[in-house]
Write a structure and sequence with these properties.
This protein is α/β, with parallel strands linked by helices. Helix content is 28%, strand content 26%. The chain is built from six helices and seven strands.
Length: 185
């Protein structure tokens, strides 16, 4: 985005935040041109460029929570705990396999579409959020901490857009810059 702004200062970006489902729906409707998503990409509907970044699934919790002293969190640790999960979490087959059970058998206290909202619920003591690392600041004087799941589950990130999309000139330039950046790595 910075490189595009350097070359084309009149181009402006509008950022929309949401989970993978919200982003793909917005692309399908044509209200956004590109999305950045984690996990598997439906290559029948979207073209994509992988981003050299992956994140780790784990649990966001209060520092005074029962599980906070553990180095890693297992499925068994969470079976009787109130969970706060993203509304699309169980679309991730690796996460589904991690729990070895159906979503209905878990104690799901709440769901979120953006982790910021989930982190507020965790901070208030509602439960444990199943989420990616590095999305909420847990350093310094934060009341929260993050513990990775074991076995480790990672998700890759990619930029996606609708197949056969006809782009505006600015979007074409942006895609061209993305492709150039990706080939130089």
């Amino acid at each position: 985005m910075n490189a595009i702004q350097q070359d084309y200062p009149l181009v402006h970006f509008h950022i929309v935040s949401g989970d993978k489902e919200m982003i793909t729906e917005a692309i399908d409707r044509g209200s956004i041109d590109f999305g950045i998503v984690f996990g598997n990409i439906d290559t029948t509907k979207y073209d994509s460029i992988p981003i050299d970044y992956k994140d780790t699934w784990g649990v966001l919790m209060r520092r005074d929570a029962e599980l906070a002293e553990k180095e890693f969190i297992t499925a068994e640790d969470l079976m009787d705990k109130p969970l706060i999960i993203s509304r699309q979490a169980f679309q991730n087959s690796e996460l589904k396999n991690f729990f070895h059970t159906e979503q209905e058998k878990l104690n799901i206290a709440a769901t979120y579409s953006l982790l910021f909202n989930g982190s507020l619920m965790v901070d208030e003591g509602l439960g444990y959020a199943i989420c990616f690392d590095k999305l909420v600041n847990v350093s310094g004087d934060s009341n929260l901490c993050f513990k990775p799941l074991i076995p480790k589950i990672e998700a890759h990130m990619g930029t996606i857009w609708k197949k056969y999309q006809v782009f505006s000139k600015p979007a074409q330039k942006f895609l061209q810059k993305l492709q150039e950046t990706n080939t130089h790595k």
